[in-house]
Amino acid sequence: MTDTCRAGAPAHAPEPLRVAVLGCSGSIGTQTLDVCRRHADRLRVVALSVSSSTDALVSAAREFSAAHVAVADPAHAQDPVLGELPAGCRLASGAQAVTELATLPDVDVVVNALVGFAGIHAGYAALRAGKRLAYANKESIVCGGDLMMPLARPGALLPVDSEHSAIFQCLVGERPEDVARIWLTCSGGPFYGRTRAELERVTAAEALAHPTWTMGAKITIDCATLMNKGLEVIEAHHLFAQPVDAIRVLVHRQSKIHSMVEFVDGVVKAQLGSSDMRAPIQYALSYPERWEATASRVDWCAEDPFTFGEADEEAFGCLALAREAGRAGGTLPCAMNAANEIANERFREGLCAFPDIERVVERVMRQTPVEAVESVEQLDEVDARARELARTALSEVCS
Length: 399
Prior knowledge:
- This protein is of the alpha/beta class.
- 41% of the residues lie in helices and 15% in strands.
- It folds into 3 domains: 17-160, NAD(P)-binding Rossmann-like Domain (Rossmann fold); 161-274 and 299-313; 329-399, RNA polymerase sigma factor, region 2, helix turn helix motif (Rna Polymerase Sigma Factor, Chain: A).
């Protein structure tokens, strides 16, 4: 998409982009709504979904006069609060209803803030329907990049992850063949510098105390294990057509440099900004334009000095496993992701130790044959099989 005008709109009077926010009650979803409030003249929220947070759904639907809403969890489809939806608002329930929001004729851009593998269906449907997809659901690209990237016309697939937004911005106006490597920055999480032995004793509460970012629980644990960075390596591999080993993870504790691109002539471009997800969300919605900031500005004169370090893949083996899955490709990243989602949840529930996440992921990867990715239905089967393997592995490693 080269501008913010819908087809047929007068060039001198662009109409607001019509936005669907999938997962509107989560961290990315609520910050997306902040951006929509700030730029109400440019963005109009027409569709919203939640998993089960119907109070938040009704509140957002009333504020933005949304025309369509969906509740993914059928158990909450009859919540009494849904009777307070605005007049004329269409309500549907179930996972398929969420996916259908991504293909509505009166939606121009889909913000996919769904968590985990489940988000692949909506993202895939949005691209097939010719929508702009502003996605925070990295798992869809990790698992289904071979399917989704061929569908992405120029300007139609915009990353919301701060790191990938940074890389995207650094590459504007550049030739892909001039890229030497990508420096993918990483805060290091709450356990940076810990040994494997020390990690045996950490708790979920400690892992959820991220030093610089405020995020949902699942991604925060992924940041602590460095699995999030491993997923982002695979994501960058697909998005920017770079080999896995040309993507270097760089620990930058201050989280102000969001990533860098190094070119063949030795020049490095970096994108800097506050640790605020509203900035990359807004860029994914405004591209190729830049709008007045929603996120806070940084006083660079007052900032602490920047530091850099190397990620410890011995202590944090999930990063090494993700690299291995990325190199192998095919269905292995999907199986790896499924195992991680199961083990991550069990750790948050206090049912396994922190290093058990890595152990479970490795076991599932070793038991998974690598096949070429052919369809979303195939990935559903791989995901389901890997989850069963992960549950079995957890019962063994935690016994």
